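Co-fold these.
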Amino acid sequence: MAPFDPERERAILDATMELLSEVGYDRMSIDQIAKRAKASKATIYRRWQGKPELVVDVICRRFDMDGPEGADTGSLRGDLAAVFRGLCETVERKHTLIIGLSSTLLSHQELARTLRAHLHARDFDAVREPVERAVKRRELAGPVDARRLFTIAEALVWHRMIFAGPPFGPEFVAESVDGVLMPLVTAWSTA
Amino acid sequence: MAPFDPERERAILDATMELLSEVGYDRMSIDQIAKRAKASKATIYRRWQGKPELVVDVICRRFDMDGPEGADTGSLRGDLAAVFRGLCETVERKHTLIIGLSSTLLSHQELARTLRAHLHARDFDAVREPVERAVKRRELAGPVDARRLFTIAEALVWHRMIFAGPPFGPEFVAESVDGVLMPLVTAWSTA
Amino acid sequence: MAPFDPERERAILDATMELLSEVGYDRMSIDQIAKRAKASKATIYRRWQGKPELVVDVICRRFDMDGPEGADTGSLRGDLAAVFRGLCETVERKHTLIIGLSSTLLSHQELARTLRAHLHARDFDAVREPVERAVKRRELAGPVDARRLFTIAEALVWHRMIFAGPPFGPEFVAESVDGVLMPLVTAWSTA
Amino acid sequence: MAPFDPERERAILDATMELLSEVGYDRMSIDQIAKRAKASKATIYRRWQGKPELVVDVICRRFDMDGPEGADTGSLRGDLAAVFRGLCETVERKHTLIIGLSSTLLSHQELARTLRAHLHARDFDAVREPVERAVKRRELAGPVDARRLFTIAEALVWHRMIFAGPPFGPEFVAESVDGVLMPLVTAWSTA
DNA sequence: GCCTAATCGAGACGGTACGTCGAGTCTTATT
DNA sequence: AATAAGACTCGACGTACCGTCTCGATTAGGC
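Predicted complex below.
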């Protein structure tokens, strides 16, 4: 058992996951995690600095975006709407965790960096292909920076998250795609 | 001394302010505040429900937006840039507090509403006038929903705040105004 | 409630007493005491430095010798035997606590002093009167230092305690009184 | 390496000895011993039940009385004083260990027996010869139970140990021998 | 000018969670 | 087969805040 036992790690991460969704970040205690994982607190603290680090690890390992799968709907608008809906789901799924962590992240910059790296990353690809297809289809006049477009989408979702909270209805998706993303991408492609 | 002593209120709010900037929201304790304000914890809890409420009060009273004062620069682009810069400053100034609070807000919806009310409120006006002036000047082809525009601006700033953190350089302002706000407002006005 | 609440103190001391006799010093935890006294650990640590100090306090307040009351039996031998039996009882009653504490006392000299002060103190008187009566009755040729005599008795009991443990049978009392105390006091009085 | 390696045993006992004198029984941990002896905890627990057993073993092997060597001084008083001084030294040397162990011994009767066996054992002989010589010299009127005498001496030293602590000055030796042992042995021999 | 009542400081209280430590067990790789 | 290394469970430790509470002392305005 000389190296860290991966089985214990699993058990602890699993217990953490469960408790996160049952009681939330704030009301979840290390003792609870230990008890549920049939682990000792020492084992937890041997691997992670504290609760925030543990939860960030959970997020990174378990909550990673599954790629919103830019399904090809035939039109740019349809593709963007699909991606946007995926983004809403993802943010909605993680937001409790991330917001629960946020105050801690202020004083743990390194932790914040780690978490950020896992926040966009993969999703970005999901928007590049629809745009490229649209260019090929002549739906767009010229090439467009997909990264920038994705950033705007992300900003819209998080803003909604912060100032209104879930759920994200279809009217929010429609308004965002038709009122912001499409006008923008069109404007950019003709610039 | 029959009514609540307003002097104590001041002392408590001041102490809270100081501690917030010295140690941050999380590591600030009610005991610290009481000691620094030479007040008793009872006095604090008599006026506020708890730490979050107290801090929200501090934010509302002390941190309120000074109105980014959409100075008339003669062009829509200049006006929007001015507003956007003001928004950056405001968010930068408050973000620590707001993020510190955020996890609490998840379980205190009423508190969240109070805070939100103080988050945009006044700023919104600052963007309506530039837009109206631009319409008058024929810089814009038609009327535009200033609220929507302001929301986008806010979303961009908060997104930057969350995923990169301060400071917000001039290139961020330029990119946002030229790459997003101007194209959007133009597109909307011709729709 | 400004000063320390004496009722809580009682409850804590009582709980400590009970647990000491139920599980012994070593296996008694502060958490147990707190739970049984319906007190919080903080309250305990506010008054006492730690477990040893608490237990010493218990000993001092609750276990104090009730004065073995040298009942006047008419003869010096009878009186000494009575005192000696009382001493046996007292030591037997306290020995578990004291031995439980002893290792701690090594590194807490001040605590050790406090405890020692409560170990003989009162008992000493119990042996002075029998001796004085014996002198009056001409049973003893001259005056005798009662303190010294008591010390010998105490030494005998503790030695028995350490090297054999309880119980102390009547043959131990007889042997001690007839074989040691009486010969000694006789020798001293004729010196 | 099939059988238990005696070299490891030595290393462990040595490390235990060192630590006992450096930090005392209570603050010495098995991990420390293991680290210092470059041994593994498993190796320690394979040989000894636990810390108390290990320390008792150390005491038995390393701290055994070297026989206070009842040097023949020509007089019973001189011989007894010599033995008594030796006893003081021995007890002083071991007392930290024994007191450190004492609380554990309460719940480990077998261990207590083992330790007791090593506490008097040899010393007893040291007092028999002086007494026999004194009888031969006609210094004593009749035979005396040396064991009983030794017990009294031991009781005096331990009592002093417990209620005052070291060091044992010459006045303690003088008072004990002249005030207690000599009167007693005289009284016994004429009985 | 006094009295009654509200408010104050101080800080003890029951709780809950923290992060650390030591004991004793068990696993793996080495010798 | 016994070892060194060290991870493991368990449970106690002592600390820090939380939000509630009970004290006297202090200060108001109504008499």
